[in-house]
Design a protein that fits this description.
Blueprint: E1 3-4, H1 8-15, H2 36-42, H3 49-58, H4 71-80, H5 96-105, H6 109-114, H7 124-136, H8 143-154, H9 162-178, H10 182-198, H11 203-215, H12 219-232, H13 237-249, H14 253-271, H15 279-291, H16 295-308, H17 313-325, H18 329-342, H19 348-359, H20 363-376, H21 381-393, H22 397-410, H23 415-427, E2 431-434, E3 438-442, H24 447-469, E4 477-482, H25 485-493, E5 502-504, E6 508-512, H26 526-542, H27 549-558, H28 566-577, H29 586-592, H30 599-617, H31 620-631, H32 636-644, H33 648-665, H34 674-683, H35 690-697, H36 725-734, H37 739-753, H38 761-773, H39 778-790, H40 794-806, H41 813-824, H42 828-841, H43 846-858, H44 862-875, H45 880-892
Parallel strand pairs: 1-5, 3-4, 4-6
Antiparallel strand pairs: 2-3, 5-6
Helix pairs in contact: 3-4, 4-5, 5-7, 7-9, 9-10, 9-11, 10-11, 11-12, 11-13, 12-13, 13-14, 13-15, 14-15, 15-16, 15-17, 16-17, 17-18, 17-19, 19-20, 19-21, 20-21, 21-22, 21-23, 22-23, 23-25, 24-26, 24-44, 26-27, 27-30, 28-30, 29-30, 30-33, 31-32, 36-37, 37-38, 38-39, 39-40, 40-41, 41-42, 41-43, ...
């Protein structure tokens, strides 16, 4: 089962982006083809040369810098390319608007102020540039300022001029982002729609729509608008930047790099410098590095960007955030101080730093920065939204309600904000039950039965987890039982789609109710899920949320109740044999951005396997040592080096050797491997020619287990003998407990005689041998369970049925059957244990409650019987028999 921790929360929201059809981007062909309509417009025969040249620039179709003959065309191309520091902007022959916009876009307000005043300053373009400059200066867009700007817009002559209308709309769009207002938002949407209808080839309109949609979490429609934008101008750097932002949100590392490379290519084309890098490309690289916990890489990228645009305000904000992610508070504050000097009172720096720290679960520090941001810019919705979502994750519901209420008033169109506000209002109405270390919140109704069950088990979970990790909670952990899958998804991401059933956000664990129905995912073992999630809560707290993703999952999976499944063993064996186990970087990425369907389950399984290796080859003390080093802020490599005295790569190499031995211990692999045994049998095959024997011998075949051919590349030059029954039985005589030999014999036996029960004596005996040799494969246990049931031999069936139950997390069938069998045998303690397990997997099924209550009475567990009967009164309130039973049990329990 998949759970979420740390930066995965953002990836969960990104899971909802799967339907966003991003432009097909490959290194070989990064830019899409130009729209046929735009191509026809450029090639229209009636155009004059200068008109055609202007259209080619407008649609990003110039070939190279040399083609841009006039300074005006070059400046327009440079603005589209986001190359705002191009030397052309020093050309005094350019108009004020081109030079001023470039200066503002690179945050060089002093350069703009030095430009001579021009009548364009009072035009629509001037209005846009002045609004942008206000934003860059750090000024908050309060109601008074917005009204004054709107009044100035009314004085700007537009007279049907498309360019002027687009410029004014762009100014309103930017202003709306910094001072949201529902009426203005509706008017802007109408204005954009009118502009698009008026000129469907103007990519700038679609770009504004994309920006507006994406900012309000409507990524699907925003992505579609970006596709249209790039089809009309493949060199729009701003469109590529927004696409890159979607890829960052989706943790699509490869796509981010391709888009950053595309921005670099645009920079090289406009500048003529084959080594140029684009500041926006470096920003995307920094943002994805932060998502991958690579603060040093993010700092390096932002320093390269700021070397190009030294005073870039957004760049300084992200540099500060990168230093903050690396826990370098001195460097973080230095970057913020520089930004403050350039844009006094601005909210951008505190907002970006707070958002990044929130993603890192540094809730208290993030809250401080975001509060600073909302105080600086109280009409800007984004900091309010981020603050509200942070407080939901940290369990501060009242504070979340206040922040999200304000956010939704400012921006009623923001999907995550409105979804989360509706949910937090619901949460505040939920009922609560408590124990020493937990609060369980539930919506009421039938969920009350499960909520009260939880308290019976949770304290035992706490004792076990606290003892293992030295965890001393500073507050009660809140378990939130979400009544539907959709409500759970909103609780975690603010959106309604998610691929998991439970998540720990630190002090809060959210869990979808384990039920069947159209609003639910289905039944599951909620206790093993909560135990997993509570380990996340513990390890996040112990490390101050500085734990790598693979290690928190390693700890959590190892505390799940169910045994590792045969499918997981096969996945691990295949990955080890095929050299597909993850390295230091890939193992973290595989959780949130898997490249194949098997990547995510393999990442969980490998992480847990590494944990077992540490316990087996070292001690539990090494686990605690790693957690302590992570708390200090050391990198993964530094933690491994300090804890084990070797590099991460060397550590993983030693783990792989141990893992090969573990596969033998578990009976997954035989020793030697079956192919080796078949090779040896081939040597003694009378039909083998001398030449084939010499060929095999020349390979230096070794039966030593260290050379058993872990790698699939070891191939024989001759074809081994067919693994017939005769050959396999001969091998089994020499290697009687060899799991691979017995597995092959079982396959032949079942093919020849089938799986119908009762089984032949020979088949049953072979399955018993195979079950002993390979104790992790469910096949013999399933068949033997069916066989002994058909034969009426419960004594022989029980161990196989218990084996199946120990690995089951979704079906209650094995536990319920075991409960009935133990009850018939008079083993009421064991019957109660299994009946209780059935209610854990299916807590809303009355028949399991009745089974558990009966077993509890038999063992004089009257309190437990009372709990289950009370649950029955909740699940089936109209049945009088439950109330009568409740009255009798209250007397027996002394209530």
């Amino acid at each position: 089962m998949l759970r979420l921790t740390r930066s995965v929360l953002a990836a969960c929201a990104a899971a909802c982006l799967s339907s966003v059809a991003l432009v097909a981007v490959t290194p070989a062909q990064a830019a899409p083809d130009l729209s046929p309509a735009a191509a026809r417009a450029i090639e229209a025969p009636y155009l004059r040369a200068h008109e055609r040249a202007a259209l080619r620039v407008f649609h990003g179709q110039w070939e190279d810098r040399g083609e841009l003959e006039s300074p005006a065309l070059l400046a327009q191309a440079a603005l589209q390319a986001g190359w705002f520091h191009d030397p052309v902007f020093e050309d005094e022959s350019l108009g004020w608007a081109l030079r001023a916009e470039a200066a503002v876009r690179r945050s060089d307000l002093a350069a703009m102020d030095r430009l001579p005043v021009d009548e364009v300053e009072l035009s629509a373009h001037g209005a846009l540039i002045n609004v942008l400059a206000l934003g860059e200066s750090g000024q908050a867009f309060d109601d008074g300022l917005v009204a004054a700007i709107e009044a100035s817009f009314d004085a700007v002559p537009v007279s049907g001029d498309r360019e002027a209308q687009v410029a004014l709309t762009a100014a309103r769009s930017f202003m709306l982002g910094r001072a949201a207002d529902a009426d203005r938002a509706r008017a802007l949407v109408r204005e954009l729609a009118e502009l698009r209808q008026r000129d469907q080839l103007d990519w700038r309109v679609r770009l504004m729509e994309a920006d507006l949609l994406i900012a309000r979490s409507n990524r699907e429609e925003g992505g579609a608008a970006l596709e249209e934008t790039l089809a009309l101008n493949p060199r729009s750097a701003q469109a590529w930047r927004l696409f890159g932002g979607l890829a960052v949100d989706g943790l699509d590392v490869d796509r981010v790099e391709v888009i950053a490379d595309q921005l670099d290519e645009i920079a090289r084309e406009i500048s003529g410098d084959t080594e140029a890098v684009h500041p926006w490309g470096e920003l995307l690289r920094a943002r994805i590095a932060l998502r991958l916990d690579d603060a040093d890489g993010a700092v390096a990228s932002m320093e390269r960007a700021l070397a190009i645009w030294p005073g870039w305000h957004e760049g300084l904000a992200w540099l500060a955030a990168a230093h903050g992610a690396g826990f370098d508070d001195v460097a973080r504050d230095a970057a913020l101080e520089e930004l403050e000097a350039r844009a006094p009172g601005g909210a951008l720096g505190p907002y970006v730093v707070g958002a990044v720290l929130s993603d890192l679960r540094q809730y208290e520090r993030a809250d401080e920065f975001l509060v600073d941001a909302v105080e600086r810019a109280p009409r800007w919705p984004e900091p309010w939204i981020e603050l509200g979502l942070l407080r939901m994750q940290s369990g501060e519901d009242v504070g979340a309600l206040d922040a999200l209420t304000t956010a939704s008033e400012l921006d009623p169109f923001h999907i995550r904000a409105t979804n989360s506000l509706a949910l937090v209002r619901d949460l505040l109405t939920y009922a609560t039950v408590e124990s020493a270390h937990f609060r369980v919140r539930y919506a009421g109704g039938v969920d009350e039965a499960l909520a009260r069950d939880m308290l019976v088990h949770l304290e035992r979970v706490h004792e076990m987890v606290a003892a293992a990790f030295g965890f001393v909670p500073d507050r009660k952990t809140t378990i939130e039982l979400m009544p539907t899958h959709e409500r759970f998804a909103v609780r975690i991401t603010g959106l309604t789609g998610i691929f998991t059933i439970a998540a720990a956000t630190g002090p809060v664990i959210a869990l979808e109710a384990p039920r069947y129905g159209k609003d639910h995912t289905g039944e599951f073992d909620w206790l093993t899920v909560i135990q997993h999630e509570y380990v996340h809560t513990a390890t996040l707290a112990v490390t101050e949320n500085r734990i790598p993703h693979w290690f928190t999952e390693a700890c959590a999976v190892n505390f799940e109740i169910a045994e590792r499944t045969w499918d997981t063993w096969q996945l691990l064996a295949s990955a080890l044999e095929g050299e597909r186990l993850f390295g230091p970087v890939k193992i973290n990425l595989a959780f949130t951005r898997p490249e194949t369907p098997s990547d995510r389950p393999l990442a969980y399984a490998q992480s847990a396997w590494i944990y077992q290796y540490i316990l087996d080859a070292h001690t539990q003390g090494h686990i605690r040592r790693m957690l302590a080093l992570q708390r200090e802020g050391l990198t993964e490599g530094e933690v491994i080096e300090s804890a084990f005295g070797r590099s991460f790569e060397q550590f993983l190499e030693e783990f792989e050797l141990w893992a090969a031995d573990d596969l033998v211990r578990q009976g997954v692999w035989g020793e030697p491997r079956l192919e080796m045994l078949l090779g040896e049998a081939t040597l003694h095959d009378p039909s083998a020619s001398e030449q084939r024997v010499e060929s095999l011998s020349g390979m230096g075949l070794s039966l030593d287990r260290r050379a058993r051919g872990l790698r699939s590349g070891a191939q024989f030059e001759l074809e081994p003998v067919e693994p017939s029954r005769e050959v396999l039985e001969r091998l089994a005589g020499v290697h009687p407990g060899h799991p691979e030999v017995l597995a092959a014999l079982v396959e032949i036996e079942l093919e020849e005689h089938g799986q119908d029960v009762p089984l032949r004596d020979e088949t049953r005996a072979l399955l018993e041998r195979y079950a002993a040799a390979r104790p992790v494969d469910p096949l013999p246990h399933r068949l033997l369970t069916l066989h002994y049931r058909a034969m009426g031999e419960p004594e022989a069936m029980l161990p196989h049925l218990e084996w199946l139950d120990s690995r089951e997390t979704y079906s209650w069938a094995y536990a319920a059957e075991l409960a009935r069998l133990f009850a018939v045998r008079g083993e009421h303690d064991r019957a109660y244990e299994k009946a209780e397990r059935a209610t854990i997997i299916a807590p809303y099924r009355p028949e399991h409650r009745e089974l558990a209550a009966a077993a509890a009475v038999k063992t004089h567990r009257f309190d437990e019987a009372l709990r289950h009967v009370r649950a029955l009164t909740v699940l089936e309130p109209d049945r009088e028999i439950h109330r009568r039973r409740l009255e009798r049990l209250e007397v027996l329990a002394g209530e």
